What we know:
The protein is an alpha/beta fold. It has 2 domains: about 10-100 and about 210-304, Vaccinia Virus protein VP39 (Rossmann fold, 3-Layer(aba) Sandwich), CATH 3.40.50.150; about 105-205, Putative methyltransferase TM0872, insert domain (DNA polymerase, domain 1, Orthogonal Bundle). Helices cover about 40% and strands about 15% of the residues. A 7-stranded mixed beta sheet has the order 3-2-1-4-5-7-6, sandwiched between helices. Helix 2 links the parallel strand 1 and strand 2 (about 45-50). The model has no long low-confidence stretch (mean pLDDT about 90).
Amino acid sequence: MAYHKPALLNESVDGLSIVADGRYVDVTFGGGGHSEEILKRLSENGRLFAFDQDPDAEDNRIDDDRFSLIAQNFSFLKNFLRMYNAIPVDGVLADLGVSFHQFDVPKRGFSFRFEGPLDMRMDQKRKLTAAKVVNSYSVEQLEVIFKEYGELRNAKQIVEKIEIARKEKKITTVEGFKAILKDITPEKIQHKFLAQVFQALRIEVNEELKVIQDLLEQTVEVLKDGGRMSVITYHSLEDRLVKNFFKTGNVQGKVEKDFFGNLIRPMEPINRKPIVPNAEEIKDNNRSRSAKLRIAEKVMSNEQ
Length: 304
């Protein structure tokens, strides 16, 4: 199964500052692009553990004795690494959001470009789908989702359209959902508007912000002192969580200082500003245009 080349591939793997005999984790295996690059830089004694809850990722499993693919959500990072007796690790890489492959499979319902079921589950075993959200959530719940997760100013208007439509019949398809919003979809920014609407539903269905917080907190626990974390984000909500955590040690961005006025945080940001794709990469892969890479290193215990 052909996957696209990952965004910021070399930059994100370089950011791990790989030790040849080290242990590393790719928590978003997908097409295996990052994992393959990490394995190239490991010796025969190195180890790589990869996580992916999407059954399609199994098709890309790498045949290498140094590699283990764990078919689970990365929110179980600590549990499974403990099971493999792999704590502490030297580095963790995360390429967040929906994979390009998932966007391109109509039956997954992630993209507004294709006709398909209103699904959006990254883990097909989950019961909550985007269709269930739009058909069963209260008006108040839906407004919060579109306002907070989609950053949409006309959240109330969107929900009014959904409320009218679902009284007549269930909303079950991408095309049907788009038709409901047609009258309020701005013509000049149609793509951006629909992307925000779909993003809001996807975040709710997959609890994306919660699992990112879990990942960040668990990474601190599994990383060895001086170990690195590389995180690629694709929208402001993800990026804000990562930026705040690296900067302050919590996703809220609450600054805490010790008696001497030093910041109390488990991670030290390596790059103050996010690394973004250059013009050549964006030309080669337009979908990488919104990617942002942040890298941090776990603070040595005696420095805290």
